[in-house]
Amino acid sequence: MLNQYTLNDSIEFTEKKEPFGGNLVDIEVEPAPINTDIIFRSKGREVKACLENTRATMCTTAIQNKQLKVLNSEHILAALEVYDISNAFINITTHDSKSRKLFKKLHFAKNTVVVPYFGTDLQRNVCDAIESVGVLNQEVKRPTIRLKKEIISSNKQLKLIPIEGDDLVFKVTTNYPVIGKQALETIITSKTYKRNANARSYNKHMRSEKVKTRGIGKIFPRLLAKVFSDEKGTKIAKYLCYPWLGLNHGFSRDNSFIAPNTIEGWLKQQRMPKEICWHSIIDGLGKVALLSGKLVGVKIECEYADHKTYLKTFKRHFN
């Protein structure tokens, strides 16, 4: 068993724009006592980051209970996980736009908050902030999770394989139009995470991908692509994904990989080799952080697995 850790001091990130409503958000991560786990808090409400409180949505994972709903938590949870921080309070303050205030008055998603993308600042603002204050060994054991046998998701897209030692290894395969199949395998450490923490999420190439009609913002993607460029069409679709969170959005090339239509354009836009694979790993780490203990001695093989596949598989075997 490993020990529990928390931060030595609080870290803060102010006025970051969240993606779904475009509202400015302040985040404070503060130390927490032993056996607290990771708790999201906002305006006197709170929810624990655990599998029991999760469900997959069209774009992200929702952590929710009767008090509070948190969207887009994967990146902040992944960062805490790679630094072995198992106890912390994440305080979220949203500066609501006028449209968000109006929807709240109409009782739409009143108790929903969104964690911002940190874009190119993620490495500096999160990893460096954690390293600057340091972590505190709380001298109490944290449970570890070690598999006795292989776990395979029902759709065969996700495998968890026992390996020797205590490493957590990810092997991710993605397959998108233009660039085709890409694969990446890496041992997860704070150093490998920090080097690639600013990997952006993939946005569909509207002209070449079949898009399921899930959610208002995905009903007419091809029509948008015919009228506008891929980038403008994508942004318009984002306005419509979660309108009740505000009639704006926080998506940009800074935090989203808007797929070009040529291989040369794709490679030029990448921040690091196989950027989309790295983002898939970060999303997976955000799910690993929801487990009741530290996952060790495991290789996670992910081939096109989405939020729903991770959550369904983890709940089936770890809840």
Molecular structure report:
- With about 325 residues, the protein is α/β, with parallel strands linked by helices.
- It has a domain at about 1-145: lpxc deacetylase, domain 1 (Ribosomal Protein S5, domain 2, 2-Layer Sandwich).
- The protein has 9 helices and 20 strands.
- A hairpin with a 3-residue loop joins strand 15 (about 170-175) and strand 16 (about 180-185).
- Helix 1 (about 75-80) crosses helix 8.
- It is globular, with a radius of gyration of 19 Å.
Q: What labels would you give this structure?
A:
alpha/beta, globular, five-stranded mixed beta sheet, 28% helix, 9 helices, Ribosomal Protein S5, domain 2, 319 residues
Helix proportion: 25-40%
What's the β-strand tally?
Answer: 20
CATH architecture group name of the domain at 2-143: 2-Layer Sandwich
Distance between the termini: 19 Å
The CATH superfamily name of the domain at 2-143 is: lpxc deacetylase, domain 1
CATH topology heading of the domain at 2-143: Ribosomal Protein S5, domain 2
Query: In the CATH hierarchy, what is the class of the domain at 2-143?
Result: Alpha Beta
| Inertia-based shape | globular
Write down the secondary-structure element order: EEEEEEEEHEHEHEEEEEEHEHHEHHEEH
Strand order of the largest sheet: 2-3-9-4-5
What would you call the structural class? alpha/beta
- Overall average residue pLDDT: 87
